[in-house]
């Protein structure tokens, strides 16, 4: 997990100085960061199915939130006269929140079902 975290930080530091106005890499960084967090928290190992669903849904919803945070951080850090990302791109990330929350919920429940009865 430490190596995966270090790789994420390295990718973040490589992405940060580029004048990239597309949200593809931002979304990939956000999804990878939340995936790392999910493997640290392991919401599928909770005693209840609903707890696993809630944890996965919240982690799924964290992907667009982290993407927007990364966009804001990068735009604020560059400090030139215009933002790196348009309002439409930010709204696109906000609009993906329900889809990513349902995706996280389903992935968490699927992982719980697959790991059910497996000793760890």
Structural write-up:
- With 120 residues, the chain is an all-alpha fold.
- The protein has one domain.
- It has helices at 2-15, 24-41, 49-78, 87-95, 97-115.
- α1 (2-15) runs antiparallel to α2 (24-41).
- The model has no long low-confidence stretch (mean pLDDT 87).
Total count of helical runs of at least 4 residues: 5
Chain-averaged pLDDT: 87
The tally of beta strands, per DSSP, is: 0
Shape verdict: elongated
Q: What is the count of distinct domains?
A: 1
Rg from C-alpha positions?
Answer: 16 Å
Order of helices and strands: HHHHH
The computed structural class is mainly alpha
Low-confidence stretches: none
Distance between the terminal alpha carbons, to the nearest Å?
17 Å
The main sheet comes to: none
Beta strand %: under 5%
Proportion of helical residues: over 70%
């Amino acid at each position: 997990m430490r190596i995966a975290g270090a790789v994420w930080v390295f990718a973040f530091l490589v992405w940060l100085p580029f004048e990239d106005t597309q949200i593809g890499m931002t979304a990939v960084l956000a999804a990878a960061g939340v995936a790392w967090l999910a493997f640290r928290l392991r919401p599928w190992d909770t005693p209840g199915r609903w707890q696993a669903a809630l944890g996965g849904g919240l982690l799924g919803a964290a992907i667009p939130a982290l993407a927007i945070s990364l966009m804001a951080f990068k735009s604020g850090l560059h400090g030139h006269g215009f933002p790196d990302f348009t309002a439409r791109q930010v709204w696109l990330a906000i609009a993906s929140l329900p889809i990513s929350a349902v995706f996280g919920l389903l992935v968490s429940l699927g992982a719980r079902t697959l790991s059910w009865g497996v000793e760890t």
